[in-house]
Amino acid sequence: MGFASAGLKATVSVALLGMLIGCAAPGARDDSRRQTVEHSLTPRVEIAGQPAMQWNVYERMRRYRVPTMAVAVIEGGRVVWSATYGIDGSARLPAANERFQAASLSKGVTGGLAAILAARRVIDLDAPVDRCLAPLSLPRGKQDAEHPVTLRNLLQHTSGATVNGFDGYAPGEPVPTPEQVVRGETPAKSPAVVIATAPGSAYAYSGGGYTVAQIAMSHCAGASFADLMQREVLMPAGMRRSSFAQPLPASIPHAVGHAADGEPVPGGANTYPELAAAGLWTTPDDLARWLIGVRDAEEGRPSFMPTDAARTMLAPGMNKYGLGVFVSGDGEHRRFMHSGGNLGFKSSYVMFLASGNGVVVLTDGDNGSYLGGEFIKAVAAAYGWPDYAPRVATRATLDEKTMARYMGHYRFEDADSRGNRDLSLFRGGARWFLDLPDIGRTELVPTSALAFVAPETGYTVTVDDDGGLRVGSRVARKTQD
């Protein structure tokens, strides 16, 4: 009897030990994968036949002059770890509570709000938006009775509205109302929003359109936009460290934005009255809660938003854009995502709907989009995602003599249509480089007789028939040296 009891005790002890090991294993595994991510940042393009380059997170923060990066990694619909990294080599686990400007990531939260209000019949996504704008009225443009401006086409960037994005207002500058922004009235610095193409006929990214939607939702719901967000989204989603207050009160800890050269933004951050387009202050853990909540709702699980609202939000229109989010892929590849950039802040997220895997990256530097892209690829590799592997290019022989005629200084229109950018193509010994206005020198690898790729940024550089350079999708024209 005593022998049998001892054997039973031993069996129970082994079973308990196994249970404890099983419980501890996920944490150990996540810690191991976190360290793998931190030491496995790679360029956007790998060169066939060459060893893959890898850096640690701090090397890339110094390369891009980004002082702080805060991240959250999601697996199976839960946050498995979050961290705040400092350019000085520091790390805080979990991520700190300081808020970052999420910039255009705000659009997805706005789209979610609109879907929730529509599910409750507070707003009608497909009715002419004019009825919710009074006393504001949209200037006449390409809209008509058969092709009205609606909340749905405003939020899907198919309303024909102009004004791509906004520069914000420095501390001490007068800040316009959203109505003044739409009208282009002083003290607004952006032009008036107009309906330049027939609603529903084309996709054109428009922060101006989101500002129209901001006014409409506020008027129809009878509350300020920030209060609506707090009541309908932020608090129900558990985003207790997020706010659409612009400017954010000084008593709330928040990151300071930094320009491409690493210098702080004067006053720490600009103010954006265009809340729907660019006004969210948040943390990576808070934003991860929102991503998880949207996925839970779409799957029919308990969430802060109704299932029909999530499905409305995630239904892609033109250019695979839903209500405030890009929606791409099928099956295990299906995901929603967005990136954003305010002065001194760059951010991004992606959430896979089938697996519940995702990541949030918030940075306080204008070069943070480069850093964030590399970090997301590192997460994808460590966690076995089906997407986000680096592209592979093959090195080729360059026509050096012809290409030498293209060396020099160039200028191209910036992608967000808010200014020109200068760059240079030059050679250093046997190597070729592109000198960019934000990150400076980046090496080029020839991929044909008259073409390059920049592994670090992913940019392709080809010769244009008119004597310019095509950098990605943009044509740069040569300027006088």
From TrEMBL:
Q: Which residue intervals define the domain Beta-lactamase-related in the entry? A: 59-368
Among SUPFAM superfamilies, the record links this protein to: beta-lactamase/transpeptidase-like
Record bears the keyword Signal: yes
Q: Which UniProt keywords apply?
A: Signal
| Transmembrane segments annotated in the record for this chain | none
Xref: InterPro entries: AmpC-like (IPR050491), Beta-lactam-related (IPR001466), Beta-lactam/transpept-like (IPR012338)
Signal sequence, start to end:
1-24
Under the heading PANTHER family, the entry gives:
D-ALANYL-D-ALANINE-CARBOXYPEPTIDASE/ENDOPEPTIDASE AMPH (PTHR46825), PENICILLIN-BINDING PROTEIN 4 (PTHR46825:SF12)
Its protein name is CubicO group peptidase (Beta-lactamase class C family)
